[in-house]
User: Which sequence fits this backbone?
């Protein structure tokens, strides 16, 4: 030992390249973690809350082919697409599966007059004013924002619903346009070649004068 | 040429340094791994909302819950026994499908004044019929819609499957008694329901109920129309 006690050991030569490597990679790592982990694709998409009744859209809208508007009947006239009142369920379930244990909350609501406490899946910030009627009446299908709900046993959030995501379509709406008579046909795809499809979308855009604004005040009023 | 200290043999660092580096790297991999898992799976947990901004403000949107009221509704129902301004419905022809003829009240056999039976009106009725009526009555009105077929299969199945299903086949709208019904009575059935059918006045606005009634009359006529009256009409598919 003696005077060698104060000499750095040989391995300390690793510290400088190690620190350089850390200094170079850590900022990249931090950016990656924030971009990947804090994106709405991570934090919001896939939200599938447990509902008081395990209502299956796959059965009702998919297999039985009930139109979205049978239940969400305000969607063409109002900003808000209504969650149906208990009465709408009882149109059928006063007769069908009326002893089902899964429908107990429905019967309870029917007898007491208290609404079924459905849990909201799609929730925009309170300072953005989305209008369903303005979109569906001009040929933007439910599927563009809600995904293939007709195939979902339980509904989850399919899209990001972030501002950047809204603007993608407001900048280039054409791929999302179709004949408004087809908006609730979630399985619909244009049948034809890419060129004909582009023409079709452009025609719909012209016909309904779809000119989405990107002004702040369009959504933030 | 690399500097000399980077060339092998690499001096062996103390064990503690190796352990700290390995553990540190492992922990650094956790956040991306958790994020990757959150991206690939649906979740019951509430959305993660780190930056609140003013996303949830102290106000209520349509159909939200508000604990301020005993029934928990933020939207207030009409006070019983009151009529909101502009909601007083006194036009019997329009609202109830009834008219006075020779001193007695009878079913209207015309649509109310103000509504015009045009092709657009009947097409609107067709669209609304397909949304609200076809699930039970079928797209052609024969009483064979998908809900009927589903309910019948439940009744025919085991009791564990049917779970108390009681089912009467929806009416075939092409039966003579429905063909003979005046349009006002068809309108009233849509509005108030009949037997096991529920009324649809809460789901369908009044003009649309008349449009559906007009379409039902057109649908009935289509079954008995003479061949000579049929014009060749381009189907929407051909128009595209």
Assistant:
């Amino acid at each position: 030992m003696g005077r060698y006690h104060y000499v750095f050991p040989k391995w300390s030569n690793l510290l400088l390249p190690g620190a350089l490597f850390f200094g170079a990679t850590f900022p990249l790592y931090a950016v990656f973690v924030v971009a990947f982990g804090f994106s709405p694709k991570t934090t919001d998409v896939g939200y599938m809350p447990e509902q008081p009744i395990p209502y299956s859209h796959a059965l009702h809208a998919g297999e039985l082919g009930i139109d979205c508007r049978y239940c969400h009947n305000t969607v063409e006239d109002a900003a808000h697409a209504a969650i149906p009142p208990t009465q709408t369920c009882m149109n059928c379930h006063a007769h069908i599966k009326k002893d089902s244990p899964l429908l107990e909350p429905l019967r309870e609501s029917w007898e007491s007059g208290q609404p079924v406490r459905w849990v909201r899946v799609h929730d925009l910030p309170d300072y953005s004013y989305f209008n369903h009627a303005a979109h569906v009446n001009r040929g933007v299908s439910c599927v563009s924002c809600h995904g293939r709900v007709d195939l979902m046993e339980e509904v989850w959030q399919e899209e990001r619903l972030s501002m950047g995501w809204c603007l993608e379509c407001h900048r280039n709406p054409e791929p999302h346009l179709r004949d408004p008579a087809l908006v609730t046909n979630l399985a619909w795809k244009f049948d034809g070649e890419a060129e004909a499809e582009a023409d079709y979308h452009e025609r719909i855009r012209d016909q309904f004068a779809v000119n989405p604004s990107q002004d702040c005040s369009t959504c933030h009023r | 040429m690399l500097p000399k200290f980077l060339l092998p043999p690499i001096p062996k660092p103390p064990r503690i340094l190796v352990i700290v580096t390995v553990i540190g790297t492992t922990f650094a991999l956790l956040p991306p791994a958790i994020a990757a898992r959150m991206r690939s799976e649906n979740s019951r947990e509430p959305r993660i909302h780190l930056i609140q901004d003013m996303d949830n403000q102290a106000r209520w949107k349509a159909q939200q819950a508000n604990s301020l009221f005993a029934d928990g509704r933020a939207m207030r129902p009409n006070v019983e026994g009151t009529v909101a301004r502009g909601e007083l419905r006194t036009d019997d022809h329009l609202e109830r499908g009834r008219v006075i003829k020779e001193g007695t009240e009878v079913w209207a056999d015309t649509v109310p004044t103000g509504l015009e039976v045009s092709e657009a009106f009947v097409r609107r009725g067709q669209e609304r019929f397909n949304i609200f009526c076809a699930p039970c009555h079928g797209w052609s009105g024969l009483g064979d819609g998908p809900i009927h077929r589903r309910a019948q299969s439940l009744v025919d199945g085991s009791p564990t499957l049917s779970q108390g299903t009681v089912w009467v086949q929806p009416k075939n709208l092409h039966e003579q008694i429905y063909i003979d019904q005046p349009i006002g009575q068809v309108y009233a059935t849509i509005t108030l329901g009949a037997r096991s059918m529920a009324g649809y006045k809460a789901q369908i606005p009044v003009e649309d109920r008349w449009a559906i009634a007009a379409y039902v009359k057109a649908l009935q006529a289509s079954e008995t129309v003479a061949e000579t009256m049929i014009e060749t009409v381009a189907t929407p598919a051909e128009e595209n």
Q: What stands out?
A: DSSP finds eleven helices and no strands in chain A.
